[in-house]
Amino acid sequence: MSKPTVAILGSSADRSKFGNKSLRAHQQAGWEVFPVNPRGGEIEGLTAYESIEDVPVDNLNRVSMYLPPAVGIKLLDKIAAKGCEELWLNPGSESPELFNRAVELNLNPIAACSIVDLGLRPSDFPDA
């Protein structure tokens, strides 16, 4: 059986940021994680993709967003083209406009913390 897949939009190499804590939480929970950061490179030993379009998997199980709403809303069409079962809008990434557009695109938006959904807490992942 294959691992569930997640793209983390707003992944960061900074271990104090939630985009990094989410990456580590999903890894710990057994997910195949695809960090997405426009700088590319490597985050926590994983290839960081510059765009959701570059992620080598279609129809992801989850996309977890850690971006400001003004940035995230511009990515919704690309997320819809890639495909996902759930779009997690973590605290600070959601807005009514973004949420409603995600509904229009059938992205199954969930405004909640994806780390908590895993049965974990952000504090479980130290900054250092």
From TrEMBL:
Q: What is this protein called?
A: CoA-binding protein
Q: Which positions fall inside the CoA-binding domain?
A: 1-93
- The positions making up the signal sequence are none
Q: Which Pfam families match?
A: CoA_binding_2
InterPro entries cross-referenced by the UniProt entry: CoA-bd, NAD(P)-bd_dom_sf
Q: Which organism is it from?
A: Durusdinium trenchii
The protein's superkingdom reads Eukaryota
SMART domains found in the cross-reference section: CoA_binding
